[in-house]
Amino acid sequence: MKHLVDFFQITEKLECEYRLTRMSDGTKQAVASHSWNMAMMAIALQPFFKTPVNLERVLKMCLLHDLPEAIAHDVPLHEQTPDVRAQKHQRETAAIEQILGLVDNEDMRACLEEYEARTTPEARLVKALDVLDTGVQHMCAKDLGYVAEYGDGFYWRMFFDDEFAQMFDFEPMLRRVLDEMRARVTARLKAELGIDAMEFKK
Q1: Residue 201 clears pLDDT 80, i.e. is over it
Q2: How far is CA 99 from CA 2, 65, 150, in A?
Q3: What is the domain partition of the chain in residue ranges?
Q4: Fewer Cβ atoms within 10 A, N terminus or C terminus of the chain?
Q5: What residues contact residue 202 under an 8 Å CB cut-off, 6+ apart?
Q6: What is the 3-state secondary structure (H, E, C) of 24-48?
Q7: Cα–Cα distances in Å, from 122 out to 9, 15, 42, 65, 136?
């Protein structure tokens, strides 16, 4: 019982761990909020998928995939040099062992390993939703100006890159959702910042 309560104290920290992305009220997005939004997208989109998926498995991965960040913390993508990524992987591996040591649940470990391997339809979908949530924040952020502060348009170049879009092509509905998001973000950039999104395309 004590270890389970310790586990709940750790999971609460995801509500206090913040990502770079901003919300519609101007605040930074919590990691827990990101995971919740992924789960909502999975539930809403599941009836439209060409390849059937185990929704329960998808939801578990949505909620668990960033759990190590409760201890290891989030690292913004623009800061992830090869050395930083290696250090991040080490910290997250140690965090997983610490966290899973508190619960007697091998399915949780299996979910995390499945997500990292990306070999199942469920894991590929969860990774796509992980990235797609960034599009939601680009649509909803109170002020998009903050995105340009990082890496000379790093995030815009990634969001509008053709290679980025290809990761959604395994499910036509995902690509349609991305295309709609891009159209809305393109309109916002033009109207609010006078930026033509085409300049970020390769």
Answers
A1: no
A2: 13, 13, 32
A3: 2-200
A4: N
A5: 157, 161, 162
A6: CCCCEEEHHHHHHHHHHHHHHHHHH
A7: 28, 25, 10, 12, 21
**In 3D, which of 190, 168, 22 has the Cα closest to residue 200?**
190
Residue 46 vs residues 32, 66, 115: alpha-carbon distances, Å: 21, 21, 18
> pLDDT, tens digit, for every residue of 101-128?
999 899 999 999 999 999 999 999 999 9
Strands (E), 51-194: none
What pLDDT was estimated at residue 51?
92
pLDDT digits over 4-58, tens only? 999 999 999 999 999 999 999 999 999 999 999 999 999 999 999 999 999 999 9
What one-letter code names the amino acid at 68? Answer: P
Q: Is 21 helix (H, G, I), strand (E, B) or coil?
A: strand
